[in-house]
């Protein structure tokens, strides 16, 4: 009887120890890598700048009106391809994907907000151009995108050459707008700030087409079947993360983080989650970074 009683006590102690070891850990949570001092040990081999490290949070400018890269879900949460990237960087910086302040921006105000110091970096569908490179420093690219046209389903518009002398909806400060200025200067642009405004303008007939990044347009058609995507992709650009001019420490850390995402094939994971849409005339997986070999 005594031996049986001792066995019950021993089993209870074992269960208690197991419960204590698991306390505070969420189901399915991955154990965090820690150094000998118990502090978070990042897999990124480059040190995060001291200013951000001491603040304990990284501030990243993102889009909230640009599905599938950045948008707001039914619960009011920012989600999307680039949001996943931002949270992954926060996890590698501080061991917590929530250690990030996501600042919603538009194409027009993202660089001014970066220059003002309100954010540390811009991860907001930003294509690399010579003009922008004069005022910000760009990371290595993480995706390639071209510009196509969104038109009503019954439209006879087939390509950008059909836009001469017509009103075309674009977004302020985008490569779609600048590309159209060079290729079809005869088109009259209606420049807006938000994707929702552009869709409304196209629906109301204020323009014959909406010129914007191809990956976004195919997502919009998925949710708005009254439209279709036409034309050949033009003004192809490399998307990258922007940091303030001369911020070499953060630039080096950012490039190392992008390389780690590539090595772990996270861009393919984000693509499968956010970008894959039937009917695309190209495979977006060819436009993202993949591990070699």
List keywords for this structure.
single chain, 293 residues, alpha/beta, 11 strands, 36% helix, 24% strand, globular
Descriptive notes:
It is a single chain. The protein is α/β, with parallel strands linked by helices and 293 residues long. The protein is 36% helix and 24% strand. The longest helix is centred in the N-terminal third of the chain and has 21 residues, at 2-22. The chain is globular. It has helices spanning 2-22, 50-55, 81-94, 110-116, 130-133, 175-183, 195-203, 214-223, 248-263, 266-275, and strands at 58-63, 65-66, 70-72, 78-79, 100-105, 121-122, 136-152, 167-171, 188-192, 209-213, 227-244.
SSE map:
Blueprint: H1 2-22, H2 50-55, E1 58-63, E2 65-66, E3 70-72, E4 78-79, H3 81-94, E5 100-105, H4 110-116, E6 121-122, H5 130-133, E7 136-152, E8 167-171, H6 175-183, E9 188-192, H7 195-203, E10 209-213, H8 214-223, E11 227-244, H9 248-263, H10 266-275
Give the strand order, joined by hyphens, for the main sheet. 5-1-6-11-7-10-8-9
Q: What would the average pLDDT be, to the nearest integer?
A: 87
What portion of the residues fall into strands of 2 or more residues? 15-25%
Terminal-residue CA separation: 64 Å
Low-confidence stretches: 1-32
Oligomer: single chain
- Class by SSE composition: alpha/beta
Write down the secondary-structure element order: HHEEEEHEHEHEEHEHEHEHH
Rg on CA atoms, Å? 24 Å
Given the structure, what is the number of helices?
Answer: 10
Name the shape in a single word: globular
Major beta sheet, specifics?
8 strands, mixed
The helix fraction, in percent, is 25-40%
Tally the beta strands: 11
């Amino acid at each position: 009887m005594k031996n049986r009683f001792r066995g019950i006590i021993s089993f209870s102690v074992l269960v208690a120890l197991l419960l204590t070891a698991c306390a505070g850990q969420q189901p399915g949570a991955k154990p965090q890598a820690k150094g000998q001092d118990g502090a978070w040990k990042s897999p990124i081999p480059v040190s995060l700048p001291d200013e951000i490290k001491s603040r304990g949070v990284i501030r990243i400018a993102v889009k909230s009106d640009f599905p599938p890269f950045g948008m707001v879900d039914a619960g009011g949460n920012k989600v999307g391809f680039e949001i996943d990237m931002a949270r992954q960087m926060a996890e590698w910086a501080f061991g917590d994907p929530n250690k990030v302040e996501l600042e919603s921006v538009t194409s027009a105000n993202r660089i001014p907000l970066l220059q003002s110091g309100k954010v540390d970096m811009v991860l907001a569908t930003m294509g690399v151009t010579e003009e922008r490179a004069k005022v910000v420093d760009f990371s290595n690219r993480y995706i390639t995108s071209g510009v196509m046209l969104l038109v009503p389903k019954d439209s006879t518009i087939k390509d950008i050459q059909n836009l001469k002398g017509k009103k075309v909806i674009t977004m302020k400060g985008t490569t779609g707008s600048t590309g159209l200025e060079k290729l079809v200067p005869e088109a009259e642009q209606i420049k807006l700030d938000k994707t929702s405004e552009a869709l409304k303008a196209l629906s109301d007939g204020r323009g014959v087409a909406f010129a914007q990044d191809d990956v976004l347009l195919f997502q919009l058609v998925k949710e708005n079947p009254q439209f279709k995507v036409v034309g050949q992709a033009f003004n192809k650009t490399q998307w990258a993360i922007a940091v303030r001019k001369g911020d070499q420490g953060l630039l080096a850390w950012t490039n190392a983080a992008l390389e780690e995402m590539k090595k772990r094939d996270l861009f393919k994971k984000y693509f499968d989650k956010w970008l894959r849409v039937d009917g695309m005339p190209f495979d977006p997986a060819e436009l993202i970074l993949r591990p070699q070999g």
